[in-house]
Amino acid sequence: MDRRQALRQSALAVAAFVFSRDAFARDAERIVKTYSGSPAGFIKLSSNENPHGPSPAARKAMMDAVNGSNRYPWEVTTQLREKIASLYGLTKEHVVMGAGSSELLGLVSVMAALQKGNAVAPDPTFRLWMPAARKFGLPIKLVPLTSGKETDLQQMKDNMDAHTKMVYICNPANPTGTIIPAAELESFIKETASRCIVLLDEAYTEFSDEPSMAKWVNDYPNLVVAKTFSKIYGMAGARAGFALAHPQTIKQLNELQPWSNAGTSAVSLAGALASLDDKEFVSFCKKENRKARDIFYTALEKAGMPYIPSHTSFVYFDSTPFNKDVTQLLESQQIIGARSFEAGSKWLRLSVGTVDEMKKVASVLNG
Q1: pLDDT tens-digit map of 216-226
Q2: 166 and 258, same domain (yes or no)
């Protein structure tokens, strides 16, 4: 069986994963569905997953928790909420749990939709929550990024009107990897959170050196900070996330759940709790991500492809100067994941894998 046949069979076996139901991205996704591990010989760099997996402590805690998963995990849920709150100088009443932060992004957008108005968001950005929000009656104004692929806060404000009920910002940004400096973001929150919900997606903050904006949730009840165990903690498949907000906002979100904090399983809660104590693993993942990212930067520079310096576990780069189709070239060598987020653009995002995986990427691009 040749490589092309192997790739075709693998794709058929796991099906195509469509990263968004937006017409904007109909034909942009040609990668495999999220699954546990890659087929033999394949390198999966598509969904910004931590290539090192959950920490050893989290793995043990999850395995141990299986034996008690016949019981509802209310006690562990409370323990985890208290642990999370302590990290941000808050109380458990400031924390809501969900099945990954994506569930909570959707929950907040439903809360906004019930207010009968519109939302404002950058474009491109993480948008898996958007189709459901529109279904609930929340039209979304998409604001183009700046020429430097950064979130345009002034244009975001200019697109707000009397009917705007929510503003969404992913910081660090997905898919570009850029970051809004803390002072600028704080100023934006202070100016807009009195008018509408500010939904701040901090899925990748732990890869950067920027602070969380959770410190403002007591001052601004409209501020909701969504975070996840999917990225640096390596628990994407376990589905554990949380949001931080003023207690009255958390209460409103709880009322939209089947029961408060219902979405996270006993096994995932145990893994998340153990992850927060495994600071050595988090430090390791951050350092390894930087090493692997630097290898990719060097490869892009040698290949003549400009890129955006990233504060995350992925890199956004312009493949226009390259004389080959980057996605097809990488796939021909069993590396899956390079894809576009902008219609008619050759800017691509590729997740950062292990050091060895990015060395393989470099050899393909520079070979």
Answers
A1: 999 999 999 99
A2: yes
